[in-house]
Amino acid sequence: MRSFPAALRAMSQFALPRVRGALLEDAPVGRHTWFGVGGTAELLFQPADRKDLAGVLAALPEEFPITVIGGGANILVRDGGIPGVTIRLGRGFLGVAVKGEAILADAAVLQLNIAQFAAKAGIAGLEFLSGIPGTIGGGLRMNAGAYGHAIADLLVSAIAIDRRGLEHVIDAPEMGFSYRHCGIDTDFIFVAAQLRGSADDPRSIAQRMAEIRAAREATQPIRTRTGGSTFKNPPGNSAWRLIDAAGCRGLRRGAAMVSPKHANFLINTGEASAADLEGLGEEVRRRVFANSGILLEWEIRRVGRPLSGFEPVVASPEERAE
To answer: What pTM was estimated for this model as a whole?
Structure first.
């Protein structure tokens, strides 16, 4: 293992196993997200496989900060970077296989790729995943959904590794799913999932996926630097309608803008900072709250530390920035 004194000083007291994956100091994770902004990871660990991941987790005390990131969608890395260890699952977590009418997928597989794999295998029911950015690991954590379906509708079981390095098989009823939420302890890192479908003609499945692709291209700014849907839909309402009604479509802060095409998307028009994007999001929340009395909840996950002096405008006096 290479030695990085600045980042590893706090870890030197722990008996880390020999790391077989990549261990990088001051890694530019922010610029590799869909927004293309944000700071660096103090230490980025990309495990070679489950055993590599489990070994490092078991060696670190529970209080040591760990952040898990996926494919870079639905995440905003703040400009001050991410302290501690950031874990990103990569090449060792890209397996996909068919088991009857189910798909077995490792956590780093893109949800789009799972849908495409299932279609070729004649397994229906997973088409909606083609309209959701990001990996299945992130999809499990947030019960990702679109077009009237969600992960909860098709999950058989998930595999996760806890902070002690122990592996758990979690059946779907134990996941505690609700709208854009999973009830499993956030210290658990999902490494694989089994998703059920049903047999169908691959051509019919491909046609449905083509319709989803056309709908996305017509209504979402998918060819811009965005993080996907910014806010969760409140019960019985749509975030984009509330944002529109509050006059926020096209609203700007620096180089960050509320998409003119879909009001629930923030976009980086060029040189936006993470502070620009988060600050714009908080301004949208403030205006929606003032207009409707509804406080929008972030769907995009914000991680890391803001730069000194950043104070987002919050939506209500009682709320505090995370």
So the answer is: 0.89
